[in-house]
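Researcher: Re-running this chain for the archive, since the previous output was lost when a drive failed. Same request as before.
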Amino acid sequence: MKTWSLKVKVGAYAALLTVISLAAGISIVLGILYYNQLAELDEELEGEVKELFWDFQNLGSAPRDPRQPLTDEMIPEALRDHYLLIRGPEGQMLYQSPNLKGESPGGEVGVRYTSRIGRKNCRIGVFQQGDYRVTIGTSLSSIERFQRDLRRSLLVALPVVGAMVFIGGHLLGRRAVAPVAGLTEAAERISATSPKERLPLPPSGDEIARLTEVLNRSFDRLQTSYESATRFSADASHQLKTPVSILRAGLDHLSSETGLTPSQLAEVSVLRQQTRRLTALIEDLLLLAQADAGRLQLESAELDLKPMIEAALDDLQTLVLERHISVEKELPGELHTLGDRRRVRLVLQNLIENAAKYTEENGLVKVRAFHERDWAVVRIGNSGGTIPPDDRERIFERFRRGSAVGENVRGYGLGLNIARELVRAHGGELKLSAAENDWTEFEFRLPMVPFDPQI
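Model: Regenerated C-alpha cells:
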C-alpha cells in the first residue's frame, strides 16, 4: 500500500480545508447576497406602487370611479413590463397586465413572496391604499443570472485556490519536515556496528530539538543496556568453554577405564553426548554474541559453493540412510561467491541438517543452487509438515521453535537465527521461500563474484 509523504499530506490537507472553508463561506455569502437583492427589489416594487397610487390621486387622467376598469393609458410606462393586477373596493378586477396571460397571483396585503408565473420566477408584493388593491410582480431573471454567473466564477476559482494552497502547503511542509528527514538519515546509521552514533541536535530549539534530546538520551540508555547484555553473553560463553572442555576430557578419560560396568559406561556415554550438546550451544551463543557486538570476524575469500554443498550432502546421506530419506540435488557446474569458508559451511550444515531433521521417514530433501543476476542462490527444501503462517517469521527468532516441532526433534532454536546472522554478515539474505502442500523450503543468497579459472 502506497503512503503519502508528510509534506504531501500537509499540502493536501491545507488545500482541502481551504476549499471546504471557502465553499462554506461562499455559500453563506451567496445566500446573504440573494436575500439582500430580494429586499432591494421589494423596496423598489413598493416605491413603484406608491408612485402609482400618487398618480391615481393627483393626475388629471387618473380614474374618478374606483369601480371602473382601468386602461393601459392610465398605467405608468415604467410599470407596463411588470406583472400588474389591480382590484377595486369589492375585489372586482379593474386591470390585469397582458403578460399575466390570465393568471391571478394572490396573497395577503403587505406580503412579499416569490412565485412562478409562466416559466419565470417572480417577486410579488401585495399593496392596498384606499379603494385600490394592487398586486405587482417582476421577474427574478437578472438576480438569478447574477447568482449563476457568480457561482460559476467561484467554481472556477476554487480549484485554482486549492492548487495554490496545495503548492504552498507542500513547500511549507517540506521546509517543516526537513529537520525530521535529517534525523531519519542519522537514525538509520545507528546500529549494532555503530551504536555510538547520535542524532544531530537542530539549532532551532523548538519541539523537534526537544524530541531529539529525548531520543539521544534514550539511545544512550539503550547502548548501555545493549553493551552490558552483549558483554555478559560473550563473557559467560567464553568462561563456560573452559570448564566444559575439562568436563569433556574427564568423561572421555573415564569412558576408557576398564573397571566400569556396562550400566556405568552407558551413563558416561549419555553424559558425553550431553556435554557435546552443551559445547555446541556455548559455541553458538558465543558466535551470536560476537555478531550482536559487531565483532564477528569474517575471513572472506573467493570460494565455490558447489563442492561445499556436495560435501554436506554426502555427510547427510549417511545420517538419514536408516530413515529412508531421499536426497536430490540440482547444482550448476560452479557457483562462486565471496565469503568466509568456515562460516558458509556452517550455514549449509545448519540448513541441510535442519531439513533432514524435520523430514518424515521415506521423505525427500532437495537442494538446488543457481545463479540469479548478481547472486549465488541456494534453496534447501524438505517434505513433511507445513510451517503454520504465524510461525513463518518467528522461526528465525532465537530459542524459537515452530509449534509443529515434535518432542523427538532435538535443538535449541538457534540454528536458523545463526544462519541468518551469518548470511547477513556476508551481505546476503536468508528467508523462508516456500511453506505449502507439505513442502518447506529455505533460500539464502550471497553476492556472486566473477570467476576466472586461469587465476
